[in-house]
Specification:
single chain, 245 residues, alpha+beta, 5-stranded mixed beta sheet, 22% helix
Length: 245
């Protein structure tokens, strides 16, 4: 039989329950190597169902729930990168740039700042999306308020371990679900997903949500980041398929 851990998350996607239940007789009839083949087929069908359902939904702003060219996965997929230390003891976040009150916080200090938990979908430029994630952290607009950014600020630079940077227009950086995050779906991030703290800019392709984050820098002029100077799109809107520059 297919392991229980391979079952779609029916709590998060209750609309799949009836269809999943109807398919259980197939698993009970499978034996030997056929189990893996049938099980794999079931999982592919479940993923296709998630994608089809998401394509039928609409966001509050009128755009489709799922951007073009995307396929829904239930969990974040590791995408590599120059991993940071990954521990809370060494974590520091520097908030600076065109601000009146630059500051720096450690992990304990970050948790003392006003916290939010927001639902957000994320979309990777490679073609996968994870929907309905529950992300917890500190909003970037809250950090801007604490630092008292200057009126000239138009962009935010997310800085991360290894010299990685991602440039984000102020509009997307100040969205209610844009944040410096340390939990997703109630759990801390694994090291491959940016532990202990990562950025979250859900309305842009996921490379803009820098992992192993070390700084938030507010600037007047746009400054293309690590991937942007290597051929990726400077803005990165998934609904416009702004994948490459």
């Amino acid at each position: 039989m297919v392991p229980m851990s391979d079952t779609p998350d029916l709590d998060r996607f209750p609309e799949l329950k009836a269809k999943w239940d109807r398919r259980q007789f197939i698993k009970s009839a499978a034996v030997g190597t056929a189990v893996m083949a049938i099980g794999g087929s079931l999982l592919r069908l479940a993923a296709d169902d998630l994608t089809r359902l998401a394509r039928a939904e609409t966001r509050p702003d009128g755009r489709p729930r799922l951007p073009p060219g995307q396929r829904v996965l239930e969990f974040l997929r590791p995408m590599g990168g120059d991993e940071g230390p990954g521990d809370v003891k060494s974590f520091r976040l520097k908030v600076y740039g065109a601000v009146k009150k630059p500051f720096e916080v450690d992990y304990a200090g970050l948790l003392k700042l006003p916290q939010v938990t927001k639902e957000a979908d994320v979309h990777c430029v490679t073609g996968w999306s994870m929907l309905k994630g529950q992300w917890k952290g500190v909003q970037i607009k809250q950090l801007a308020e604490l630092a008292e950014i200057k009126g000239e600020v138009r962009h935010v630079i997310l800085e991360a371990h290894g010299g990685f940077t991602a440039n984000v227009p102020l509009k997307e950086a100040f969205a209610d679900n844009a944040m410096v995050s340390y939990r997703v779906n109630g759990k801390p991030f694994a090291i491959e997903h940016g532990a202990p703290v990562r950025g979250l800019i859900p309305d842009l392709y996921f490379w803009k949500s820098s992992k192993w984050i070390t700084g938030i820098r507010f600037v007047k002029d746009d400054r293309p980041g690590y991937w942007e100077v290597r051929g990726y799109h400077n803005h990165a809107d998934p609904w416009k398929e702004e994948r490459y520059g």
